[in-house]
Write a structure and sequence with these properties.
The protein is α+β, with helices and mostly antiparallel strands and about 525 residues long. It is about 25% helix and about 35% strand. Strands 22, 23, 24, 25, 26, 27, 28, 29 and 30 form a 9-stranded antiparallel beta sheet that branches. It is globular and about 90 Å long. The two termini are about 35 Å apart. The relative contact order is 0.09. The chain binds guanosine-5'-diphosphate. Guanosine-5'-diphosphate binds next to α1.
Length: about 525
């Protein structure tokens, strides 16, 4: 199956490093990727029509040897995290682009955290040094504060001053990538087995049918091979390189555009070569079923503090990853400082992989999903689709407004003594069809219970166009016709009054819910 090289040490050969370019918006990621591609003078075949196939390979000379490097041609860390979230590790090295006139910015730090969480070595490209206001020394100082210490300051991160615009020092940047790879990675693969690798991107082409850009990770892919890619399969009809040239084979580390699949696979999915078409079809069908099941399971799985404890007891986890978000920087710092003082013994480590001020964003959830982290929200809540996404990805967000409470719970979790957790159970929903104004009772909502049961003693929230406009309310009264009721079931009308919330509108939905203790163990 997918994943390991066949044979033994002797069968392995060096393969090029695979590089992703990350960094803050407008710092020059796209321009750098374009410049590196066109500065690829060693490649004699270049000169065709360059195609954006999602990845490309360049060659450079280091100490007299020709060395190849593969670039994933999608700037930004979204692609990087999306792949990791699928369990696909495509990237060996990250180039962190920082504009020398702008310095370190929020997305610089985000990118840095993503790469660190993935254990991917970083090479820093200090870009735009052609600009008069460029200050590469300042960038070095700023990144040192985040643990990326330049070699020239005694650290182990290579910084290269470049200009993507003037194509300055691009060879030095390529050299730094090669040297970093040599120093910290063992990049070898068996080129003589059936090919395996990743789908970088895929689309449906009008003339050519499904077209997938793949990256060979081991083995050699040849025209005529039967492959399964994601839930698609087929025989490789033709392969194109990034210059639009037809190629017959692709060895480890090489990207290629593959024609001949029956369906476009998703980015980050794997491909394998199999014996024949019939087998390819069978595997593709199985994969599709498995993927569907996994998607459903994933919705149910939650990585909670309890999961962490359970796997710690079984000896599986020794590391709790946290992402801290708070309303002001003071509270985030205080939280992090207090966390650092928790004595969890030698075996367990608590890692804060990202922190920041402001609402919990989709990027935070992305990083949490990719690194099995729990998000701590201190006086902040998810923004936009981040909450929905956390539910879908099974990322736990814990909210606190008191620091010692957060510390206590995390400490308790680490020591295996967490207090029972509560889970919200939605009991039912009622739609407001009429509003009666009563000087004594306030606004009475004339409702139809459209789902489940509405209960007098349960909590309630008001939804308007899918948004929560009031939460955690109590009912002042619940009536069926003229009588007080303890609950009203689906299909029946009722009248209810919300405590401390009068701003109801026709069409609002009142959701009745309660908090249930989740039994432990
Ligand atoms: P991205 O958002 O990180 O992909 O940034 P882009 O590659 O789109 O670049 C943002 C802007 O910076 C564009 O206007 C580029 O032309 C400009 N830019 C990129 N690299 C350089 C550089 O080395 N020097 C100068 N002066 N401008 C650059």
């Amino acid at each position: 199956e997918f994943g390991a090289d066949e044979g033994d040490e002797d069968d392995l050969a060096f393969r090029p490093p695979i590089v992703t370019v990350m960094g803050h918006v407008d710092h020059g990621k796209t321009k750098l990727l374009d410049a590196l591609r066109s500065a690829n003078v060693v490649d004699k075949e270049a000169g065709g029509i360059t195609q954006h196939i999602g990845a490309y390979q360049v060659a450079t000379e280091v100490d007299g040897d020709e060395r190849r490097i593969t670039f994933i041609d999608t700037p930004g860390h979204e692609a990087f995290t999306a792949m990791r979230a699928r369990g696909a590790q495509a990237t060996d090295i990250a180039i962190l682009v920082v504009a020398a006139d702008d310095g370190v910015m929020p997305q610089t730090i985000e990118a840095l955290n993503h790469a660190k969480a993935a254990g991917v070595p970083i090479v820093v490209a200090v870009n735009k040094i052609d600009k008069p206001e460029a200050d590469p020394t300042k960038v070095r100082g700023q990144l040192t504060e985040y643990g990326l210490v330049p070699e020239e300051y005694g650290g182990d991160t290579m910084f290269v001053d470049v200009s993507a615009k003037s194509e300055l020092n691009l060879d030095k940047l390529l050299e730094a990538v090669v040297l970093t790879a040599d120093a910290s990675l063992d990049l070898r693969a068996n080129p003589d087995q059936d090919a395996q690798g990743l789908v970088i991107e895929a689309h449906l082409d009008r003339g050519r049918g499904p077209v997938a850009t793949i990256l060979v990770q081991r083995g050699t892919l040849r025209v005529g091979d039967s492959i399964v890619a994601g839930a698609g399969h087929g025989r490789v009809r033709a392969m194109l390189d990034e210059h639009g040239n037809n190629i017959e084979e692709a060895d480890p580390g090489r990207p290629a555009m593959v024609l001949g699949l029956n369906a476009a696979p998703g980015a980050g999915q794997t491909f394998i070569v199999v014996d024949d078409d019939r087998m390819a079809r069978q595997i593709a069908e199985k994969r599709e079923a498995r993927e569907r099941a996994a998607m459903q399971a994933k919705r149910r799985v939650r990585r909670t503090l309890e999961d962490f404890m359970a796997s710690m007891e079984k000896g599986e986890t020794q590391e709790l990853n946290l992402i801290l978000k708070g309303d002001v920087s003071g509270s985030v710092e205080a939280l992090e400082d207090s966390l650092a003082q928790i004595d969890v013994g030698e075996e367990v480590s608590l890692r804060v992989i990202d922190r920041g001020v402001g609402a919990i964003t989709e990027t935070n959830v992305d990083l949490a999903a990719a690194s099995d982290a729990i998000i701590i929200g201190f006086n902040v809540r998810p923004q936009g689709k981040a909450g929905q996404m956390a539910d879908k990805e099974g990322v736990e967000i814990r909210y606190y407004s008191v620091i010692y409470q957060a510390i206590e719970e995390i400490e308790a979790a680490l020591k295996g003594m967490l207090k029972p957790e509560y889970e919200e159970a939605v009991l039912g929903k009622a739609e407001i069809r009429e509003i009666f104004r009563s000087s004594k009772a306030g606004n009475i909502a004339g409702c139809m219970v459209i789902d489940g049961t509405v209960r007098r003693n349960a909590k309630a929230r008001v939804l308007r166009d899918g948004n929560v406009v009031a939460d955690n309310l109590d009912l002042a009264s619940l009536k069926r016709e003229k009588d007080d009721a303890s609950e009203v079931r689906e299909g029946f009308e009722c009248g209810l009054v919300l405590k401390n919330f009068q701003d109801i509108k026709i069409g609002d939905v009142v959701e009745s819910f309660e908090m249930r203790e989740i039994p432990r163990g």
